[in-house]
Amino acid sequence: MSDPFGQAADADRYDIDFAVPQVHRLRFTRDCFGVDFAVLRELLQPSSHGMARVQVWLDQGLVDWDATLPKRITGHLADSSGIELAGDVQMLPGGESVKNDPAYVEQILQAFHRQNL
């Protein structure tokens, strides 16, 4: 077998440089689920396999402050061609409790799995 990396036949390791092309797209808005929703919609692009599928997870404190937010998000996404809301808008407690309990990470990962994301 030939050595595709140009290393000696008895080499026990290979160091191969590579790069993964990617674009980190940052946008700044004041109300991405309100008047600035077009900015978010632009980022949620359909793939070659179909519609963009998204889940939305909100801090419960934010929902306590604006109880209309989950319904507005659902409405914006329903009115957007090429975007599918995968499941209901979900709420998580905010603050230290969610950061310090791995059960919340597990809950999110299970939801991703159930929706095949």
Describe the model.
The chain has a domain at 37-114. The strands form two sheets. It has a two-stranded parallel sheet with strand order 1-3. Strands 2-4 form a two-stranded parallel sheet. By secondary structure, it is an alpha/beta fold. It is built from five helices and four strands. It has helices at residues 37-43, 60-65, 69-78, 96-99, 102-114, and strands at residues 52-54, 57-59, 83-85, 90-92. The chain is extended, with a radius of gyration of 21 Å.
**Could you say which overall geometry the principal axes of the C-alpha atoms support?**
extended
Q: Percentage of helical residues?
A: 25-40%
- How many helical elements? 5
Low-confidence segments: none
- End-to-end Cα distance, whole Å, is 40 Å
The portion of residues forming beta strands comes to 5-15%
Tell me the quaternary state: single chain
**In which order are the strands of the major sheet placed?**
1-3
Number of DSSP-assigned strands: 4
Average of the residue pLDDT scores: 90
How would a textbook summarize the main sheet? 2 strands, parallel
What is the alpha-carbon Rg in Å? 21 Å
Q: Please trace the helix and strand order, writing H or E for each element.
A: HEEHHEEHH
What structural class should be given to the helix and strand makeup? alpha/beta
